[in-house]
UniProtKB/TrEMBL annotation:
GO cellular component, one term: cytoplasm
Organism: Neolewinella xylanilytica
Subcellular location: Cytoplasm
Top-level EC class: transferase
Top-level lineage group: Bacteria
Catalytic activity as recorded in UniProt: (8S)-8-amino-7-oxononanoate + S-adenosyl-L-methionine = S-adenosyl-4-methylsulfanyl-2-oxobutanoate + (7R,8S)-7,8-diammoniononanoate
Main location: cytoplasm
Protein name: Adenosylmethionine-8-amino-7-oxononanoate aminotransferase
One of the record's GO molecular function terms: pyridoxal phosphate binding
Subunit-level organization: Homodimer.
UniProt: substrate binding residues: 52, 145, 286, 319, 403
Length: 433
């Protein structure tokens, strides 16, 4: 890769959330192994992002490579309309075993954003089939992020999300303030009462309440008490709304629980039992394939699927070309097997402990508002927005790949990261702040 290649990139290739008029700097990567990215100039960077939270096993993973190669020799893709195949069936079996009990109807989409689109369409079709066509709006929380396609954008935070740019184009939904921060902060009865009043006001024209459980990701890395999930469940039941959990970012162990909606090992999120907070529809993606290929799933209860099937359309009105792509499904099977065979719970606990210890000095900076850690997520919130280009230049000089946004510098490394690598990442953050 030479200067001409980079000039072409700068002029012609649009990178996420950047401008072709004045694009942010890019760093050419030639390979990736373990938790390290190889720059074209020979330097190595420890990856603190898991490539936007999906490469939980790191890079160039033999088990995932083998699954990809074996499947490519059989078939790389075949339409899912009227056809099925072993990788999709095997992936479905694995998901049914580890997802919250009762969420066993699976729609295999081709990206996280599309899976949220599907979840929202499921909710609208469900209410329509029950005879409530007026219930086509959504309730959600401020501070949320659900994807960049149209329907998910419409339930992203109206200020920090996409509403300001696309006002008039996006459908409008009802937003309520997010729960008070702090994973262990007690439930605020005033908040609960206000939320109940909000539901009572808007529920009559609403299909579902959609939320990121416990961790609001790209909308601000905000953590809240899991006990609020039971509140959400009770209010949805009271008003006839479906409850949708977006676990694109949190699924497959990132928080220390396999899924915040329940299911699998390590998921005793509430002593009262999983049913008290289990959603009706849930989306998973990102880490599903270990970062190898784009794939996501929208899963729902048998009751939701049955009602949709009895509706006017009689079918789920969605069908992506690359739905249940065999390559992606085969790698997802291998990634789930690798995760469950690994000491992932211990790994995440160790990462949490080390993030807490090594990021603690950042809290002494007057520029820092708060340092918080949950599972394999470490967040340093600044008082002012971060200059991304300047910050990344410092991080790269320190041998770290970290991508800040807004006022947040955060780490979500692969679960396989070792302590020296994690300490390097934290040291780079502390040096910047």
């Amino acid at each position: 890769m030479n200067a001409s290649d980079l000039a072409f990139d700068r002029q012609h290739l649009w990178h996420p959330y950047t401008s072709l008029r004045d694009p942010l700097p890019v760093y050419p990567i030639t390979s990736a192994t373990g938790c390290r990215l190889q720059l074209a100039d020979g330097r190595e960077l420890v990856d603190g992002m898991s490539s936007w939270w999906c490469a939980i096993h790191g890079y160039n993973v033999p088990e995932l490579n083998d699954a990809l190669h074996r499947q490519a020799e059989r078939m790389s893709h075949v339409m899912f309309g009227g056809i099925t195949h072993e990788p999709a069936i095997e992936l479905g079996k694995r998901l049914v075993k580890i997802l919250p009990k009762g969420l066993d109807r699976i729609f295999l989409a081709d990206s996280g954003s599309v899976s949220v689109e599907v979840a929202m369409k499921m909710a609208v079709q469900y209410q329509n089939a029950l005879g409530f066509p007026e219930r086509h709006k959504f309730l959600t929380l401020r501070g949320g992020y659900h994807g960049d396609t149209t329907a998910p954008m419409s339930v992203c935070d109206p200020v920090t999300g996409m509403h300001q740019v696309f006002r008039g184009f996006l459908p409008e939904h009802a937003f309520f303030r997010r729960p008070p921060g702090g994973y262990q902060s007690p439930v605020d009865p005033v908040y609960v009462a206000d939320l109940a009043a909000f539901f009572a006001e808007y529920a009559g024209r609403t299909a579902a309440f959609i939320v990121e459980p416990v961790v609001q990701g790209a909308g601000g890395m905000h953590f809240y008490n899991p006990a609020y999930l039971r509140v959400f469940r009770e209010l949805c039941d009271r008003h006839g709304l479906l409850l949708i959990y977006d676990e694109i970012a949190t699924g497959f162990g990132r928080t220390g629980q396999l899924f915040l909606g329940g299911g699998g090992a390590g998921n005793e999120i509430s002593p009262e039992g999983e049913a008290n907070h289990r959603p009706d529809i849930m989306t998973v993606g990102k880490a599903l394939t270990g970062g190898y290929l784009t794939l996501a799933a929208t899963v729902c209860s048998a009751e939701v699927a049955d009602v949709i099937g009895r509706g006017e359309a009689g079918v789920m009105m969605h069908g992506p070309t690359f739905m249940a792509n065999p390559l992606a499904c085969a790698v997802a099977c291998a990634s789930i097997d690798l995760l469950l065979a690994s000491p992932w719970e211990q790994q995440v606990r160790c990462i949490a402990s080390r993030l807490t210890r090594h990021l603690r000095p950042a809290a002494q900076s007057s520029r820092v508002k708060e340092v918080r850690v949950l599972g394999a997520i470490g967040v340093v919130e600044m008082h002012e927005p971060v200059d991304v280009a300047a910050a990344q230049a410092i991080f790269v000089r320190e041998g770290a790949w970290i991508r800040p946004f807004g006022r947040l510098i955060y780490l979500m490394p692969p679960f396989t990261i070792n302590e020296p690598e994690l300490e390097l990442l934290c040291r780079a953050v502390v040096k910047y702040v």
